[in-house]
Write a structure and sequence with these properties.
With 284 residues, the chain is an alpha/beta fold. The protein has helices at residues 17-27, 54-57, 61-74, 99-109, 128-133, 149-161, 178-183, 204-211, 246-269; strands spanning 4-12, 31-40, 45-53, 78-83, 88-94, 115-122, 138-140, 166-169, 188-193, 215-222, 232-239, 273-276, 279-282.
């Protein structure tokens, strides 16, 4: 099967970037199969994502990266060149709720997520049978309320041993310590309902029902030290009315959460998300 090189770039905006990069690729016979660009007029920053048919280049990923480096230096680029034949390794983290985990496992087995799921880590043992049925390692790491440091030290060791490129908090109901947020910056994805901060704590959908909300939603974002305030990757909503019960709201919320998380993870795996401060540019 054909594979691709994905070039993603962020740099100060100036004339000639697209021309310079495209001419470089054409000079090696490269076929650009997808191209996206965006100029942020407020910050003066330019963003680019190219997909290049690897077979058309006739050189290795490493050789192409070395050849492009002088152009990256010329334009002061923050950049990456990734090879789609090198599958990303993903670690999922869960607690007791299974809807996001089940959805991701289904999409993974169906070939919708181009990655290897290296392991699942949980602070409960409830979902072990489901995960191991898929042939995936399951690690139960209880988190003691009065001393969480040993548990997260074990989590860090497991993620490192799995050689994870990405960690997904698929309804993991613990707050990662700042040290983990910093260590895996830009590589940890979370999902939560979009009522925050209005309906924090237990049973947010029941709280929303009592308030008579008309929209419920979910937010997929990168994890930072500031709780639920990292760069947003994807969001969606579902309209509700006075006819719906609290259980309806929970059901709708789960549907939105799993769909938003799956899209956010897929876009991350496909190098479609470029972080810009506490915002993102998403070439979806």
């Amino acid at each position: 099967m054909s594979h691709y090189y994905r070039l993603v770039v962020s740099c100060p905006d100036r004339l000639g970037i697209v021309s310079r990069v495209s001419t470089f690729i054409a000079g090696y016979g490269g076929s650009i199969t997808e191209a996206s660009q965006h100029s942020d007029l407020e910050s003066g920053r330019f963003f680019m994502r190219y997909e290049i048919l690897a077979d058309s280049i006739g050189m290795s990923h490493e050789a192409l990266r070395d050849a492009f480096a002088p152009i990256a230096d010329e334009f002061a680029m923050d950049w990456a060149l990734n090879d789609t034949s090198q599958r990303r390794r993903v670690v999922l983290m869960v607690s007791r709720e299974s809807h996001c985990l089940v959805d991701l496992l289904y999409r993974w087995t169906a070939g919708e997520l181009d990655c290897d799921i290296a392991a699942v880590i949980s602070n409960h043992d409830d979902l072990r049978a489901l995960v191991e049925w898929h042939g995936i390692a399951y690690h139960h790491v209880p988190v003691a309320p009065d001393d969480k440091a040993p548990a997260f030290a074990e989590v860090q060791q497991l993620v490192d041993e799995a050689r994870a490129d990405c960690v997904v908090l698929a309804r993991y109901m613990q707050i990662l310590p700042p040290s983990l947020c910093e260590r895996y910056a830009g590589r940890v994805i979370n999902i939560h309902h979009s009522f925050l901060p209005s309906f924090a704590g237990a049973k947010p959908y029941h709280q929303a029902y009592q308030r008579g909300v008309k929209l419920i939603g979910a937010t997929c974002h990168y994890v930072t030290e500031e709780l639920d305030a990292g760069p947003i990757i994807e969001q969606d909503i579902h309209r509700v009315s006075h006819c719906h019960t609290p259980n309806d709201l929970v059901r709708f919320g789960r549907d939105v959460e799993k769909a938003v998380l799956a899209r956010g993870l897929r876009w991350h795996l496909e190098d479609r998300v470029l972080v810009h401060g506490n915002k993102t540019v998403v070439f979806a």
